[in-house]
Amino acid sequence: MDRLQSMRVFQQVVEEGGFAAAARKLGLATAVVSRLVSDLEHHLGVRLLQRTTRSLSLTQAGETYLERLRVILGEVDAAEAMVQDQSREMSGTVRVLAPPIVAVHLLAPAVVGFQRAHPNVHIDLHVEDSPDPAVHEYDLAVLSGATTIDPGFIARTVIHSHSVFCASPGYLRECGEPAAPEDLLRHRVLRLRLPGAKLGPLRLMDPGHADHALEVDVVSAFTANHGDTLLRATLEGGGISSQPVDVVEALLKEGRLQRVLAPWITARLSLLAAMPSRKFMPSRTRAFLEFLVAHARQTVAGLDIDVPQP
Predict the structure, then answer these.
(1) DSSP letter, residue 305
(2) Which of 31, 157, 245, 272 is the most buried (most CB within 10 A)?
(3) Which residues, including other chains, have CB under 8 Å from residue 114's CB and lie 6 or more apart?
(4) Residue 35 pLDDT > 70, yes or no?
């Protein structure tokens, strides 16, 4: 008896709900499927299935055996996939989930760089801004560190960052540069409106003094629930906004934006990569994750801003 084949056939019979359906799925004769399950029961010395002319159900022993069987077969499949994966050129699809601002400013440039090295890997990026993202449907989900992730998933920190005040050179020439947090009361302040949250006073922290915090009760000139909209308004000279340093890194280097009110920040941020909890990760997914982490950390490495890394 091929015990591994019998185990797979038994699992398929349970999942398909019958011998005939399992036989069609496996491309075997129904009699062969029935015989393999019977041989397995004979080998174990216990009945795994209760059979009637109209129904099929697991015995208690069958339930216990199937629970362990799934783990064993999963390990066998993972081992085979790992060996095969190492013996062929990296290819296939990596399904990635990310919120809009991360997709535009971090994922898109990273994908371009990654595919120069691995042109046969297709990145399927799904952009969604949801408080409850469907992480389980993707190979990799890049999420805010504040997102609640099921404990059954693996989470890895991509980058630690924080938000800084920015304005366009044109706005600063016209309106002057704030020298202290209280000066924001005399400036046009652009603010992000989070879902379900009411805008209150603007909270600032001083990293040089153990995140000493203060609040300024500014009147917002413009609010939006979309980060890129506020960024575009800032670039157009609409006022001062708070932006993640990893998002505005290139704009600061190019001089299209200028940081103001240093060293004050408005938030400490982090990005996480969440993956299904499994021992084997395809090399294409692992390679893209490593490239993304390196790309994200290099993004802020050239800035004169203290951003601690994990």
Answers:
(1) S
(2) 245
(3) 121, 123, 287, 288, 291, 292
(4) yes
Mean local confidence (pLDDT), 247-270: 90
Determine the pLDDT at residue 310: 44
Would you say 166 and 218 are in contact if contact means Cβ atoms under 8 Å apart? no
Q: Are strands 189-192 and 240-244 parallel, antiparallel or unpaired?
A: parallel
Is 40 exposed, middle or buried (CB count within 10 Å of its CB: 0-12, 13-18, 19+)?
Answer: buried
- Angle between helix axes 108-117 and 283-301 (nearest 10 degrees) is 120
Give me 152's structure tokens. 């059954």
Domains 3-86 and 90-310 equal at CATH topology level: no
**Whose structure tokens read 């009699």?**
31
> By the 8 A CB rule, do 1 and 39 touch?
yes
Does the pTM surpass 0.85? The reply is: no
**Does the structure show a pLDDT above 70 at 43?**
yes
Q: Where are the domains of the chain?
A: 3-86, 90-310
Question: Is pLDDT of 157 > 60?
Answer: yes
Tokens found for residue 235: 């670039």
Residue 230 one-letter amino acid: L
Q: Give all strands (DSSP E) within 152-290, no chain letters.
A: 153-167, 189-192, 202-206, 212-216, 220-224, 240-244, 258-276
